[in-house]
Amino acid sequence: MLVHFKNLLYVIAFSFLSIAAFSQEQQSTIPKWYSDKGYWVVESNIYKPLDHIIRFYDNDNILLYKEVVTGMRLDPTKRNVKMKLKQVLETNIVAWQQVKAGKEKGNYVAMELGGQSRKAGNKR
After folding, report:
1. What are 103-113's pLDDT values in tens digits?
2. For the chain, how big is the Rg over CA atoms in Å?
3. Would the CA dihedral through 102, 103, 105, 109 be positive or negative?
4. Quick count: other Cβ atoms within 10 Å of Cβ 96?
5. How confident is the model at residue 98 (pLDDT cuts 50, 70, 90)?
6. Are 85 and 33 in contact (CB under 8 A)?
7. Side by side, which strands form the sheet with 48-58?
8. Phi and psi of 74, rounded to 5°?
């Protein structure tokens, strides 16, 4: 009888542990700066910390827009910068979908961040 009770106790303990393990599923939280429509890439140079190249892509890895931002320090790890880049990305995706040729239209990043910019094709 003691062996039967011990086996029953093991079964109950195993049941509780398995229920607890299945109920703790990972709930991934998606950050607000994440866009499900596309992504951006920020290129910086350690020797020129005020110059950046920002490229915006859709989910099919098609380049939507490219901008060279000069004269401002851009920290892509800050949430505020990420939110503004998301806003520019989604604006460009809408423009790309409407025109299907929106490569380099304007200074969206510079306008959003309040700095100067020049188009990628222009030489100094």
Report:
1. 455 666 776 77
2. 25
3. positive
4. 21
5. confident
6. yes
7. 38-45, 48-58, 63-70, 116-118
8. -120, 115
User: Can you tell me the distance from the alpha carbon of 31 to that of 75, in angstroms, rounded to the nearest whole number?
Assistant: 17
Cα dist. 25→20, 21, 28, 31 in Å? 10, 8, 9, 19
Positive or negative torsion for Cα 87, 88, 90, 91: positive
**Domain assignment of residue 105, yes or no:** yes
Distance CA(57)–CA(51), nearest Å, equals 20
* DSSP state, residue 34: -
Domain span including residue 81: 38-118
Has residue 8 been placed in a domain?
no
Please tell me the total count of domains within the chain.
1
pTM to 2 decimals?
0.60
Alpha helices in 24-122 (DSSP H): 79-99, 108-113
